[in-house]
Amino acid sequence: MTWRPFRNVIVCHMVPGSEDKVGPVFGQFDPTTRPQDLGVVGRMLLSYEDLYIHVIERKEDPEISGQRRGLPAFQQIAEAIAPYVTPYPSYWQNPSHSVAKQFYEWLPEGDVPEDRELTVIVQRMKPGSEADIARVFAESDATGLPTETGVTGRWLYGIEDCFVHLLEQDAAKAAAVRADHESNAPAPAFIKVMEALRPYVSPYRPETWQSPKDSVAHVFYRWQAEDWHPELEAAR
């Protein structure tokens, strides 16, 4: 059975070009404060336009584990990145309001390839349209399209008008799909999904968007606990 981490997604504004200020802060604390002792086994920091996307990977859902303590050095980290990272939602009052809400998940049956890659896609969404977006993806995921494109997992999150799509794919198939899209028009099934989403989802920055690859966030920091191994978790 394939094991996957439980993921939280944090969305904030970030001063463009400040990746080299924010990344080293986590690079200083992650190796020394042992977040894995509190169930956190990895993290990805990504930037997209004026956004900061923080994907936290845990051994399991805190609702199940009961592990709710804050991360080591949380206050020091928050103070160090405060000049560059600020709240996204208009209703923000405390750090929990920066956590995007997951509203859809799809996983294939059976095991999946070990060599998988995670892509984070960022778009605008019509507030309150989570059910409609989930319906479009559920209808598509019930077809053969995920298998054809090597999709091994999909998670959708929303925070106010921001839509974050975590797409896990077989690395080899993902590369082949990208190459095909660059040399040919997208497959009709893919176009059908894009058209069905059009009333609810749009580019985050329409004036600069040209193709789907322009919606992909850029990873600028990655950490995984060295003394923790996913294959051991999968064997349990």
TrEMBL record:
Cited Pfam families: Cyclase_polyket
Matches recorded under InterPro entries: Dimeric_a/b-barrel (IPR011008), Polyketide_synth_cyclase (IPR006765), Polyketide_synth_cyclase_sf (IPR038474)
Signal peptide segment: none
GO terms under biological process: polyketide biosynthetic process
Gene3D superfamilies: Dimeric alpha+beta barrel
SUPFAM superfamilies reported for this sequence: Dimeric alpha+beta barrel
Name of the protein: Polyketide synthesis cyclase
Species whose genome carries this gene: Geodermatophilus pulveris
Organism phylogeny: Bacteria, Bacillati, Actinomycetota, Actinomycetes, Geodermatophilales
